[in-house]
Design goal:
Neuraminidase, 4-stranded antiparallel sheet, single chain, 3% helix, mainly beta
Amino acid sequence: MLRRITLALALLLSTAVVYGRDTAAVTETGRMQTPRACHTASPLADGRVLIAGGIDSDENALDTAELYDPTSGTFTPTGDMLEGRSCAQAVTLGDGQVLVFGGWGARTPIASIERYNPADGTFTPAGEMTVPRSGFTLTLLNDGRVLIIGGSNRRETHASAELYDPLTATTTPTASLSEARTAHTATLLGDGRVLVTGGSDAEEGDRTVFDTTLIYDPAAETFTSTASMSVPRYKHAARLLPDGNVLVIGGSNQLDWRGRYTSSEIYDVQAGTFEPAPSMEAERFKFDSATTLLEDGSILVAGGSQLVERYLPDADTFTPISGELDADRFYQTSTLLPDGAVLITGGYDYNINVTDFAWLVLP
């Protein structure tokens, strides 16, 4: 009850001058070199953003990559990837290089890993995962290793997880999940553990969508069950809040497009429980890569709708941002830039028409 009273008071005190449509706006920036959706977007040390892979409107996997320069607002080509891949996962390492893992190749998921070097603009081989994966999660742990969880190779969904060592470019198996799952989330907690939420046991056809959640402990290399969410979710999003708890938002149930949510909830790390949180303004799924923690501690939410909004932790509310995207876009990306603005790129609409549009959300 005290938490609700405190949040209500914060909501009354927050104004449009601090939060809301008057403090942030969506505006177009330069167009990408290539229309793409389900691509990766990785911040580089010099402030540029690497955009790699994805699909075109014919659902072909792309091997092209490009760089966004926030000083000029333009995209320029960089070296091609070694393989075309869509819905891959990428992580920026402490040395500034970028690793790109798995995803869909020409016809099936792939296991290969590539390393991008910003110094010369090239991709080079960086090992392989133990199995091909799409719909998996990638988490850079505090010790520098990369945790890879679940996913699918279309024929089967994986319960396996593995650890990748960037220094040796090798992977080793770690504990398996209690349930094979794809299209889940994995969030690094403040204490170095990882919260895994939801997901599905199949990428296509009949599926079970999970409300279950797990905690991965990298020290013990174990998964343990924690509280269940209020509803089953997959293709949803999750972000760490400034207070160390986790906001879980949107997604869908087993009805997929017809079962999309506006709802959200918060995982209380200390209590190990989920608490209700307010609903978004729009139904959203396929948008985890378009959800970003901002410098002020709020969470920017894009993708799955023309509307862009943000979650305000102090007020415990979602607030629309001024301006809209050109269409409801799925599998977009959003990337925080050094000046606090956010770059939103690509995505496809309901007809799988892929765009080269890019937008800035200005703080």
